[in-house]
């Protein structure tokens, strides 16, 4: 018998990405860090007011920065998987 050519599986069709969606995603990354830092700072200031301390705003500031960077990295990894 003659050798028949093997069927080549079709390539998956990737959906076309909208540039506005990408713009919205990257602008969101730019707002995450400052927003998290400000929320942490103001929560720390509120705790300073309630507990009559003078240093918890720094803890809130550092915590907000860490949360902001964590969220930014998580969003960047999830967008690179798509």
Report what the structure shows.
The longest helix has 33 residues, at 19-51. Helix 1 packs antiparallel against helix 2 (56-81). This protein is mainly α and 82 residues long. The protein has helices spanning 19-51, 56-81. It has a domain at 27-81. 72% of the residues lie in helices and 0% in strands.
Give the gist of this structure.
The chain is mostly helical and 82 residues long.
Topology:
Elements: H1 19-51, H2 56-81
Helix pairs in contact: 1-2
Features:
82 residues; mainly alpha
Structural class: mainly alpha
Mean pLDDT: 85
Q: Between the first and last Cα atoms, what is the distance in angstroms?
A: 45 Å
Described by the principal axes of the CA atoms, the overall outline is rod-shaped
- Characterize the biggest β-sheet: none
- The portion of residues forming beta strands comes to under 5%
How many distinct helices? 2
Overall radius of gyration: 24 Å
